[in-house]
């Protein structure tokens, strides 16, 4: 079975983009995040930056394989802001990101339909304006062996184009290697079948 072992994310915060609808201004931006704790400081910064803003709405998604998300309307009508923003995160299939849309009210009410459209469009423009990168999910193994096994271990690493993360060559040899998740099982078997080579999976 083909395991899904890559995901899309962003490497750095995007430029802020401005979308206008009936005099309301929607400032949208995308930020890379590694945990839910990253969200609050960013939102607070945006409130300071746009101190006349009525709403700082956002959605985030975290996790490579098991994903969690949250959408926040920040006082806009229920599901008129956070969920349309989250919809764009799904549509661009990115994770470990926070998408914010800061609204400065222009005096004309947009109605729920208008709000959904405006927040969705602003989030879409911000994501289109962001450099999206693909990352591979890897598994790491620790290999322990004596010097006589060095040759066959290194040969296998080279043949399989595995990455050596770190090495420790003292009395025995210790290597930390990383491998694509989809090839992890097969690689583990390879080393496990070698005599005098001890392989363990790193959590």
UniProtKB/TrEMBL annotation:
Gene3D superfamilies: Impact, N-terminal domain (3.30.230.30). This is IMPACT family protein. It comes from Flagellimonas marina. It comes from the Bacteria. Transmembrane segments: none annotated. Belongs to the IMPACT family. InterPro entries: Impact, Impact_N, Impact_N_sf, Ribosomal_Su5_D2-typ_SF. Residues 22-127 form the Impact N-terminal domain.
């Amino acid at each position: 079975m083909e395991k899904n072992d890559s995901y899309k994310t962003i490497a750095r915060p995007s430029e802020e983009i401005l979308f206008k609808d009936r005099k309301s201004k929607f400032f949208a931006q995308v930020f890379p995040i590694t945990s839910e704790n990253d969200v609050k400081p960013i939102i607070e910064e945006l409130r300071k930056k746009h101190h006349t803003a009525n709403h700082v709405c956002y959605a985030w998604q975290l996790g490579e394989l098991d994903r969690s998300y949250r959408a926040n309307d920040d006082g806009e009508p229920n599901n008129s802001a956070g969920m349309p923003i989250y919809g764009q995160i799904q549509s661009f299939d990115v994770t470990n990101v926070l998408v914010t849309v800061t609204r400065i009210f222009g005096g004309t009410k947009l109605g729920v339909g208008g709000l959904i459209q405006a927040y969705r469009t602003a989030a879409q423009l911000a994501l289109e304006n962001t450099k999206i990168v693909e990352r591979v999910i890897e598994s790491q193994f620790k290999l322990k062996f004596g010097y006589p096994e060095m040759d066959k271990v290194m040969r296998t690493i080279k043949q399989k184009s595995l990455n050596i993360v770190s090495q420790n060559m003292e009395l025995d040899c210790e290597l930390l290697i990383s491998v694509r998740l989809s090839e992890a099982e097969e690689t583990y078997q390879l080393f496990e079948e070698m005599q005098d080579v001890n392989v363990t999976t790193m959590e």
